[in-house]
Amino acid sequence: MLNSIELAWLIRRDAIEMTHLSGGSHIASVLSMADLLAVLYTDIANVDPKNPQMIGRDKIILSKGHAGAGIYSALANMGFFDRKILKTHYQNGSILSGHVSHKGVPGVEFSTGSLGHGLSVGSGLAYGAKINQSNEKIFVILGDGECDEGAIWEAALISNHFKLNNLIAIVDYNKMQSLDYVEKTISLHPLDKKWEAFGWNVISVDGHSHEELKKAFNKAFKSREKPTIILANTIKGKGISFMENDILWHYRFPHEGDEYQNAVKELDLIRPINIKDPYIL
C-alpha cells in the first residue's frame, strides 16, 4: 500500500510522462495539487478501489478538470484501474480524456473541465447525503482562478444555508491562472475573508505539507454546522524547478529533449526510497 509521499511522487512522475506522450497541457496545474490528492486518497477519503461504486463511499470531485492527469494517476496507483492505461492519456480512442471524464473510468464521480461546476455538484451530493442520513463526505478540489466563476459563490451560499458540514472544498491556491497571476486577472484577496463572509469554516495550510493537510481534513470533520474550505497554498509547477511559478507551464508540456530529460532527472533525485523499481508507464 502506498503512503502519501510515494503517491505524490508517482502523480508528478506520471503526469510528466502522460503529458509528454500525448502533447497535452496543464502539467503545472497537476504538479501543484499532487500532494493534496495524495493525502486525500491514501489517508482521508473512504473509497474502495475494488468496489468503486460502494454505497456510502466518500466522493472526490476535481472541479479544476483540466488537471485530470493527476486524478487519473492517483486512481491508477491506488488500484482503481490498470496503470498501463495511463499511457493512452489524451490520445484518440482513450477513456482518459484531457479534461476529467467519468465515462468508463472507475473512481471518477463527475465529468469536469467547464470551470465553476464542481462545487455546485458537490453541494447537491452533500445535500442528498444529508437527506439520506449517510455519513459520506464530499470533497471538491477547486482552482483559485476558478473562483472567478459566479457559480462557485452561488454554491457557497447554498452550502452554508443548508449547513452542509459534510462538504469539504479545497482550493489549489497557487496564485496563477491561465495566462497571468490571479491578482492581475480578478483579485481574490482576501480570499479567506470572502469565504468566511459566505459562512464557511476556513482553514489555511501549506498545500505541500502532508501533515498540515491531514490535520486540516481532520479538523474539517469536526465542523458541526458549516461547510469547510481548505485554502491550500501551493506552488504552480511544484517539484520541477524550471516549471515552478512560470505561467508558461499552465498550457505547455515537456517537449522531447532537455525539457523532458531535465524534468525526469529532477524527480529521480527525490524518488521515495520504497519506490525501487525502474519507472515504467
Structure description:
By secondary structure, the chain is an alpha/beta fold. The protein has one domain: Thiamin diphosphate (ThDP)-binding fold, Pyr/PP domains (Rossmann fold, 3-Layer(aba) Sandwich). The protein is built from 9 helices and 7 strands; from the N terminus they run ααβααβαβββααβαβα. The strands form 2 sheets. The protein has a 5-stranded parallel beta sheet, sandwiched between helices. Strands 4-5 form a two-stranded antiparallel ribbon. β2, α5 and β3 (about 165-175) form a beta-alpha-beta unit. α1 (about 5-20) packs across α3 (about 70-80), α2 (about 25-45) runs parallel beside α3 and α4 (about 120-130) packs parallel to α5 (about 150-160). The protein starts with a helix and ends in a 12-residue tail after the last helix.
Query: How would you characterize the largest beta sheet?
Result: 5 strands, parallel
**Mean pLDDT, nearest integer?**
96
Number of domains: 1
Strand order of the largest sheet: 1-2-3-7-6
Q: Approximately how much beta-strand content do the residues carry?
A: 5-15%
What gross morphology would you assign?
A: globular
The top level CATH class name: Alpha Beta
Helical content stands at 25-40%
Q: Which fold name is given in CATH as the topology?
A: Rossmann fold
Could you tell me the radius of gyration in angstroms?
18 Å
How many E-type strands?
Answer: 7
What is the H level of CATH, i.e. the homologous superfamily? Thiamin diphosphate (ThDP)-binding fold, Pyr/PP domains
* Total DSSP helices: 9
If classified by CATH, what would the architecture be? 3-Layer(aba) Sandwich
Unreliable spans: none
The assigned structural class equals alpha/beta
User: What is the string of SSEs from the N terminus onward?
Assistant: HHEHHEHEEEHHEHEH
Question: Kindly, what is the distance between the CA atoms of the first and last residues, rounded to a whole number of angstroms?
Answer: 19 Å
